[in-house]
Design a protein that fits this description.
Mean pLDDT: 91
Largest sheet: 4 strands, mixed
Structural class: alpha+beta
Number of strands: 16
Number of helices: 24
Shape: globular
Helix content: 40-55%
Low-confidence stretches: 1-29
Distance between the termini: 52 Å
Strand order of the largest sheet: 2-1-3-14
């Protein structure tokens, strides 16, 4: 009996030792080794005394530099930090497949950068320990990110998962910059407007009358196309606010806040949405919307735009896409007042619009140095370097602040500003885990025309647009099936109502079908997610 007790005692000790060892390993997986910490400088440059290498899985946009292992800004930053980032770039077109393969195979990089990791994957692999929590690392080693999150607690709330952990550094839009928060923007062709003898439309009725008048005109021998963009969704972006729907921004394409009750609403069954569809049906069936809008190719849109055919559009800076001469004809469109007195512009994105852009994995032996590497680009000096490049090469300091050099703004090889800068920096293009800094960024949305448009629209921009919500695993599974089916049906019926293929006499059947598809369950999931967001969990 004594022998059995002794064996049992030894087994318990062994089991306890295993538990302690596991806990220790888990703790060490979150932080670097003692050697790594001894090599780390907690502030200043270099970040580490002895050079280290970090293997990076990086998403690459078509407009970005071809090889990030040989980009002047990153080369200079490597000298400053003593950190050699080994960039393994994956074009955005094949990003999802290769990202999933890396996660499934267990052949992990030290860091996923600009990889557009979905929130569901961040949460799943974060709970599994594959992505390490960044909360403590930010508190101790990322003073610039920490200060920003303290300044904007709603952003911190928007990047923390239901378990309280932060598993990624996001790409952020400046919450105080209207042009940064706007997605596409409305534009009116001033020359066509002058020919109609009308003022810039301010109501949906005036907009309809302008499009009707424009349809009878011609430009440079071409028939005018009254209203277009690269998709029907972008045309809706201009008009939803005039009918009081989509009042929490475009990241949630079917839910918003009921203006009467303040509760969550599936606006695709609301009377106001039906009114919007009836208005769009009138525009489409009278030929005031480009008739191939549901299948339009970007090249087709750009070609028509370059010929000055469009009387109105909702898109990005026309000078960038149609050229200086034709693009210069466009002026900002107005936020339109609708039939019920609503006057909002809802094509607005939460500052936290894309989260999964900087996730440290559990194989990374230098997480503290890694978080310090990105934190510098959240500082003023770091942002200047990230967006404008190298002093003396791409910009010069002046009494009015940093200004791009002549080689960039008037490139001898005929390159645009973006193309010339792309030889020195890795922005624009891609999901960089930084703040789009209006003081230094050369992105199109900070050009004078866009700033004017945003200033014109600022009084009517919706406040506090919702970010993407976080869902528990079971909720996400339901949304992947139930939610996908509902969104597919909504999209199909929207097109049928607008084109006249389905009569509005079928509206009640449309609503009933959605209810039979499980709309109540879908809304329960969204309500729970909204509740978590509002509670800051």
């Amino acid at each position: 009996m004594k022998k059995n007790k002794k064996i049992l005692f030894l087994l318990c000790i062994s089991f306890f030792s295993v538990l302690v060892a596991c806990s220790k390993d888990e703790k060490e997986a979150v932080g670097g080794s003692e050697d790594a910490l001894e090599n780390l400088n907690q502030e200043g440059m270099p970040i580490v005394e002895e050079e280290i290498t970090i293997d990076v899985f990086a998403g690459k946009a078509a407009s970005a530099a071809d090889d990030w292992n040989d980009v002047p800004v990153l080369n200079e930053y490597e000298k400053m930090t003593n950190i050699d980032m080994n960039w393994n770039q994956v074009p955005v077109d094949g990003l999802e497949e290769k990202r999933n393969l890396a996660l499934a195979s267990g052949d992990l990089p030290d860091l996923f950068y600009g990889s557009y990791m979905p929130n569901s994957d961040l949460y799943k692999y974060g709970e599994q320990g594959i992505f390490i929590p960044l909360n403590d690392l930010i508190d101790e080693y990322a003073p610039n990110i920490k200060a920003y999150l303290e300044k904007y607690p709603e952003i911190k709330q928007g990047i923390a998962f239901p378990d309280g952990n932060i598993y990624a550094i996001p790409r952020l839009r400046d919450p105080e910059s209207p042009t940064s928060l706007m997605d596409d923007k409305p534009w009116i062709n001033q020359e066509i407007l002058d020919e109609t003898g009308m003022d810039n439309p301010e109501t949906t009725d005036e907009f309809y009358e302008y499009l009707k008048a424009a349809k009878e005109l011609s430009v440079d021998g071409n028939e005018v196309i009254p209203f277009s963009s690269v998709s029907m969704d972008r045309l809706f972006h201009w008009l939803t606010g005039a009918f009081g729907v989509s009042n929490k921004g475009i990241l949630h394409p079917s839910i918003d806040e009921d203006p009467e009750t303040g509760e969550l609403r599936f606006y695709r069954t609301a009377d106001e949405y039906k009114q919007l569809l009836e208005y769009m049906n009138k525009l489409y069936t009278e030929g005031l919307i480009e008739q191939n809008i549901y299948s339009i190719e970007v090249d087709h849109f750009l070609a028509n735009g370059a010929e000055g055919k469009y009387a109105a559009m909702n898109f990005f800076n026309p000078k960038d896409y149609f050229g200086e001469e034709v693009g210069g004809r466009y002026i900002p469109g107005n936020a339109l007042e609708g039939p019920n007195g609503d006057k909002l512009f809802t094509s607005v994105i939460s500052p936290v619009n894309s989260l999964g852009h900087f996730s440290i994995t559990n194989v990374n032996e230098n997480p503290e140095a890694t978080i310090r590497w990105i934190d510098y680009f959240w500082s003023d000096e770091g942002a200047k370097m990230f967006f404008m490049g190298l002093e003396g090469e791409t910009y010069e300091e002046t009494s009015d602040g940093p200004e791009l050099t002549e080689e960039i703004t008037n490139n001898p090889n005929g390159l645009t500003v973006q193309e010339a800068l792309a030889q020195y920096i890795i922005n624009p293009g891609g999901g960089h885990p930084v703040i789009e800094n209006p003081e230094y960024s050369t992105a199109p949305e900070f050009q004078p025309e866009d700033l004017e448009n945003a200033e014109n629209m600022a009084p009517y921009l919706i406040e506090e647009p919702w970010p993407f919500f976080f869902y528990e695993e079971e909720e996400q599974a339901a949304l992947d099936s139930l939610g996908a089916d509902i969104q597919k049906y909504v999209g199909e019926m929207e097109a049928q109502f607008v084109t006249g293929e389905t009569s509005f006499d079928e509206w009640d059947n449309y609503v009933k079908t959605l209810e039979e598809m499980g709309l109540d369950e879908y809304m329960e999931i969204q309500n729970e997610a909204l509740k978590r967001y509002e509670e800051g969990q």
